[in-house]
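Folded chain entry
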Amino acid sequence: MKKKSSFQALIDDTRPVLIDFHADWCGPCKAMHPIVKELAQKMGNQARIVKINVDKNPELAQKLSIRGVPSFLLYQNGQLKWRQSGMLSLHHLETILKQFLNS
């Protein structure tokens, strides 16, 4: 994210927006990559899934209190709805996202 306003524009979507905060050096983040990719394919246009590298976006990571990676934050209509750190299953992430569809 190059502009601070672009993050706000990203999370202002009416669809659920799942953000995967990760780092290139993080083993669990690398393990989550195929899971997040499959989730994005399964959800299609129903939700937006974005990966943000904490090392390339340190100000944003600090502002959002990202203390460990991977961390997942779910926004909808500009509001934080859910967050969790650590490795998660495809089923768990899909279940969380589906709770916010059409809400």
In short: The chain has a mean pLDDT of 93. Residues 15 and 103 are 9 Å apart (CA to CA).
